[in-house]
């Protein structure tokens, strides 16, 4: 099963209650991993870690630090996706017996779905509340959007017999 990573980034607004609500909302929306880059610098890190554990989700401080076993394609916001690079990295991951992941800082998710047949094992999307009021809100999926995205990934996996 592909790991669907909800990256709440700075969308928690340095508010523990809001961060926990985002975690719970991400789980209900289909995420099985929470990523919060830079969270270790925030005072409520232990409490958030505990909340994620209670939700039975994995917690990644940095998706890039997954034991060196992950080759990740990253498309920053306001950039076009390079499909040739996606295919090149997918092939590199396969040849090196590593996992392949995609992180696109865009609200659309067509590339993420298209990568499923190419062996993607991790898909990371920015995640915010329905209002998308956080600093990363303009390129984050809302809970309802993430839920549709997660269902589409699971549907493709099922169609492929995974």
Average pLDDT metric:
86
Radius of gyration: 15 Å
* Text of the CATH class: Alpha Beta
Could you say which overall geometry the principal axes of the C-alpha atoms support?
Answer: globular
How many discrete structural domains? 1
Helices and strands, in order, run as: EHEHEEHEHEH
Global structural class: alpha/beta
Low-confidence segments: none
The CATH topology is TIM Barrel
Protein topology:
Layout: E1 3-7, H1 16-28, E2 33-35, H2 45-54, E3 58-60, E4 70-75, H3 83-95, E5 99-104, H4 110-114, E6 120-126, H5 143-159
Parallel strand pairs: 1-2, 1-6, 2-3, 4-5, 5-6
Any overview of this molecule?
The chain is an alpha/beta fold and 162 residues long. The protein has a single domain (3-159), classed as Aldolase class I (TIM Barrel), CATH 3.20.20. 36% of the residues lie in helices and 19% in strands. The protein is built from 5 helices and 6 strands. A 6-stranded parallel beta sheet has the order 3-2-1-6-5-4. Helix 1 packs parallel to helix 2.
């Amino acid at each position: 099963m592909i790991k669907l990573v909800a990256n709440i980034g700075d969308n928690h607004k340095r508010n523990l209650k809001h961060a926990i609500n985002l975690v719970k909302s991400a789980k209900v929306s289909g995420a099985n991993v929470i990523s919060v880059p830079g969270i270790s610098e925030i005072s409520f890190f232990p409490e958030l870690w505990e909340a994620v554990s209670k939700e039975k989700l994995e917690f990644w401080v940095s998706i890039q630090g997954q034991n060196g076993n992950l080759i990740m394609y990253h498309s920053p916001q306001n950039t076009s996706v390079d499909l040739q690079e996606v295919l090149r990295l997918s092939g590199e991951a396969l040849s090196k017996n590593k996992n392949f992941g995609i992180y696109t800082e865009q609200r659309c998710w067509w590339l993420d779905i298209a990568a499923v047949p190419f062996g993607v094992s991790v898909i990371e999307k920015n995640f915010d509340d329905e209002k998308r009021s956080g600093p990363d809100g303009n390129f984050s999926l809302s809970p309802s959007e993430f839920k549709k995205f997660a269902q589409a990934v699971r549907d493709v996996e099922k169609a492929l017999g995974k």
